């Protein structure tokens, strides 16, 4: 398996038809661009349901509208290959806090969980064997007010890690914690309305894996693991999943899984 997560051309994903399967205790992660060839953009648009098409039309800017169409169209293409269902026939519902889930009738007995994120022309998708997952991606902004935001919203140990980092690296450390927290909240279907200073992300010495410590009785479950993703330079990406006994599989080919 490659040690870097490659950002794929959505056109290649749209053309691929081979069946996909995620093994037990594995999580597949895909990365793809949202700038798509015209044929891929139209193919994605044709697979959207009425609700998704209506949401796309509400975007004022064409670039934002096309990004939404490609993100959700590629999501349907890939989930269709995992479940053996035509992309346009997939049906989704929402959990209690709005987290999208794939309806059972769409899965043909191949139960999978997923989570997607997209930001500034890039997207990440996680697909598991049913294990709950969350994923997040952010472009690192060098001039973000890392310390002032951390002092207001982060746990004390997280704030200290940012404060003790060399000034040129503080933004990178800040976004490492930010995407880890966001992936965890998305995985549990909570979102950023949840107080993010009520839990602490504890990274290992390599700053690649992390466990969660809840600071007070909370709706947040602590039995999750976070894994930082080897995304391209200038970005930060994180995957969160319940438990510790799972394996990350980077999907660096549009066709058969790695």
Unreliable segments of 5+ consecutive residues: none
Structural class: alpha+beta
Taking the sheet with the most strands, its summary is: 5 strands, mixed
Number of helices: 7
CATH fold annotation of the largest domain: Ribosomal Protein L22, Chain A
Mean pLDDT: 92
What's the Cα radius of gyration? 18 Å
Fraction in beta strands: 25-35%
Quaternary organization: single chain
Order of helices and strands: EHEHHHEEEEEHHHEEEEE
Report what the structure shows.
This protein is α+β, with helices and mostly antiparallel strands. It has 2 domains: 7-131 and 243-251, 4'-phosphopantetheinyl transferase domain (Ribosomal Protein L22, Chain A, Alpha-Beta Complex), CATH 3.90.470.20; 137-239, Ribosomal Protein L22, Chain A, CATH 3.90.470. Helix content is 31%, strand content 26%. The strands form 3 sheets. Strands 1, 2, 5, 6 and 12 form a 5-stranded mixed beta sheet that branches. The model has no long low-confidence stretch (mean pLDDT 92). The protein contains 7 helices and 12 strands. β8 and β9 (209-214) form a beta hairpin.
């Amino acid at each position: 398996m490659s040690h870097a997560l490659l950002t794929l051309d959505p056109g290649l994903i749209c053309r691929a038809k081979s069946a996909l399967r995620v093994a037990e205790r594995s999580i597949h992660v895909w990365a793809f661009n949202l700038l798509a060839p015209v044929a891929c953009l139209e193919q994605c648009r044709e697979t959207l349901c009425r609700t998704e098409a209506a949401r796309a039309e509400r975007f004022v800017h064409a670039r934002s509208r096309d990004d939404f169409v490609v993100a959700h169209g590629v999501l349907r293409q890939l989930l269709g290959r995992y479940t053996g269902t035509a992309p346009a026939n997939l049906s989704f519902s929402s959990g209690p806090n709005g987290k999208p889930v794939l309806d059972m009738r769409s899965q043909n007995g191949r139960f999978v969980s997923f989570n997607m994120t997209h930001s500034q022309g890039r997207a990440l998708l996680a697909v598991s064997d049913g294990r709950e997952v969350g994923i997040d991606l952010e472009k690192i902004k060098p001039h973000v007010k890392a310390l002032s935001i951390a002092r207001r919203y982060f746990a004390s140990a997280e704030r200290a890690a940012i404060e003790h980092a060399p000034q040129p690296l503080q933004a990178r450390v800040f976004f490492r914690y930010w995407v880890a927290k966001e992936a965890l909240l998305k995985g549990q279907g909570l979102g950023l309305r949840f107080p993010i200073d009520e839990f602490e992300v504890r990274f290992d010495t390599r700053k690649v894996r992390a466990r969660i410590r809840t600071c007070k009785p909370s709706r947040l479950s602590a039995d999750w693991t976070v894994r930082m993703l080897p995304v391209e330079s200038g970005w930060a990406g994180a995957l969160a999943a319940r438990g510790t006994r799972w394996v990350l599989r980077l999907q660096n080919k549009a066709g058969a899984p790695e």
